[in-house]
Amino acid sequence: MGSVLKGKRILVGVCGSIAAYKASELVRTLRKDGADVTVAMTEAATQFIGPATFAAFTEHPVMLEQFPDDPGSGIAHVDIADRFDMVVVAPATANIMGKAAHAVADELLATILNIVECPVIFVPAMNYRMWRNDATQAAVTRLRASGKLVIDPDVGDLATLAVGAGRYPETERIVAAITEAFSYSQRLTGKKVLVTAGPTREPIDPVRYISNRSSGKMGYALAAAARAMGAEVALVSGPTALEPPFDCELLKVETADEMLAAVKARIRAQDFLIMAAAVADFQPVDPAREKIRRGSQRTSIGLKAAPDIIKEIRGRFDGTLVAFSLQANDDHQRARQKMLDKGAQYIVVNSYNEPEAGFESDNNHVWVISHEREPVELPLAPKKIIARQIWEEITRSQE
Ligand SMILES: Cc1cc2nc3c(=O)[nH]c(=O)nc-3n(C[C@H](O)[C@H](O)[C@H](O)COP(=O)(O)O)c2cc1C
């Protein structure tokens, strides 16, 4: 199988870290895998390793100066916006990440990072104190929130013989991250996706409600993955404690009725509807207007069925509908019947009695059931990974 890196134009940005020399192994490996590699070095990086090494390994001149003696067209950094398929900053100093997170463009590599729109990966390497420093961590969070991949450094022996988190990772791990970033398809470009996530709250009185243990993590991960695959995403979310996913429209709701209204209002133009929310099945018949006081005669709660959102939107939506089912076992026959009853193209089955997976957990283990194919098992993995795998499954027939 040919490497996904073949022919890819990769800029490796080398910064002033003691690990700068290790970038030469990365460059050589990427070239062996068929990538066309160019190196940009910061001025500080040249204190650690000479440009001649990288020029020889890449067979391209090394990019060094923001203001070269011979300025050429004078706007070379602007051309760079389209010249590369990916930028990998390795090693990335605390300094370059701080600059990139705050649009500082005071030398060539920092300027490039401000101008490129291709995927960017940072490979930090630094003293453990520098890595755990609040300002460094804030820069990392900011970069990640804007869609950049910042690889966690290794924990181990550092240059000063101290031990801690900050070590430049093995080349193999960096190449794996680069390969994964390239393989990650853009299959949802131009598509519109509506995701529901989280629990709903059904009021008993103004201060109390009936809800469930859904954390929203699976739905949020599905929204983020769809966005990363190029979709325009709207996320209708019940109450959760989660950070909104990057660049998705977030519509916050509380009750099943509000969720229904939000979905109805948006449904027409969507290509995909992912019903990952744990919508209440029941709601109190007649919520009290005032707080029910201790000693009140009212000691029982009458329940009625909450709206069935999928049923309510039938006939208004002709895209791909993905329903979720939470069951105590992997009874695929039952799930398949639910898929047919709901008019869904897919149903994702999670079990709620499996340790390490499902509600509230960061991990999940699911089965994707469709009309044509055998059920596909997605083994226990972080929800972010399961989300990508679900999208891979439900877009497979659209390849
Ligand atoms: C010997 C030495 C080793 C250094 N190693 C690192 C390092 O591993 N990571 C880091 O973030 N900064 C390191 N620094 C500090 C950076 O070189 C310094 O912040 C520099 O301004 C970074 O510039 P640049 O980001 O433009 O490459 C080191 C400094 C010295 C003198």
Q: What's the average pLDDT?
A: 90
Stretches where pLDDT falls below 50 for ≥5 residues?
none
Bound molecules: flavin mononucleotide
How much helix is in the residues?
Answer: 25-40%
Number of structurally distinct domains: 2
Termini, distance in Å? 19 Å
CATH architecture of the largest domain: 3-Layer(aba) Sandwich
Rg to the nearest angstrom?
25 Å
CATH level-3 fold name of the largest domain? Rossmann fold
Major sheet characteristics: 8 strands, mixed
How many DSSP H or I helices? Answer: 13
CATH superfamily of the largest domain: CoaB-like
| SS-based class | alpha/beta
How is this structure best described in words?
The chain is an alpha/beta fold and 399 residues long. It has 2 domains: 9-183, Flavin prenyltransferase-like (Rossmann fold), CATH 3.40.50.1950; 192-398, CoaB-like (Rossmann fold), CATH 3.40.50. The chain has 13 helices and 19 strands. The strands form 5 sheets. The chain has an 8-stranded mixed sheet with strand order 12-11-8-13-16-17-18-19, sandwiched between helices. A 5-stranded parallel sheet has the order 2-1-3-4-5, sandwiched between helices. A two-stranded antiparallel sheet has the order 6-7. The model has no long low-confidence stretch (mean pLDDT 90).
